[in-house]
């Protein structure tokens, strides 16, 4: 099953909620993982089940990065706030780097996130049809 990570900085959490509500039908067919607070909000505000890691600043981004290394993730939607410095910037940079190392698609704004979600849904549909 397609496994996707959802992460949003505080100022982008409402955008993430909007995105997951719009794509709820597609996302409900995926295996979802999220950083702590993002996951909490998604489960409260959308009809989606999400595996929650730690919050980003205390290691959640790093835990998602470990899944990338282990080959468990097909894509990441990570809505970043470009206007606010983050205390865990090194962790964020490490997650982005490891996605590049392992060629895992990482979307950092809403429109790119929609492309990733739609693309992964199309891939899953293609796999289902050829199975
Ligand atoms: O800080 C984050 C990503 O860098 C997100 O963490 P939370 O989802 O716990 O807010």
From TrEMBL:
The active site is at 61 (proton donor/acceptor). It catalyses: dihydroxyacetone phosphate = methylglyoxal + phosphate. PROSITE patterns: METHYLGLYOXAL_SYNTH, MGS. Coiled coil: none annotated. It is an enzyme of class 4 (lyase). Its EC number is 4.2.3.3. Residues 1-131 form the MGS-like domain. GO terms for molecular function: methylglyoxal synthase activity. Keywords: Lyase, Pyrimidine biosynthesis. Substrate binds at residues 9, 13, 35-38, 55-56, 88. InterPro entries: Methylgl_synth, Methylglyoxal_synth_AS, MGS-like_dom, MGS-like_dom_sf. Belongs to the methylglyoxal synthase family. Catalyzes the formation of methylglyoxal from dihydroxyacetone phosphate. This is Methylglyoxal synthase. It comes from Haloarcula saliterrae. The lineage of its organism: Archaea, Methanobacteriati, Methanobacteriota, Stenosarchaea group, Halobacteria.
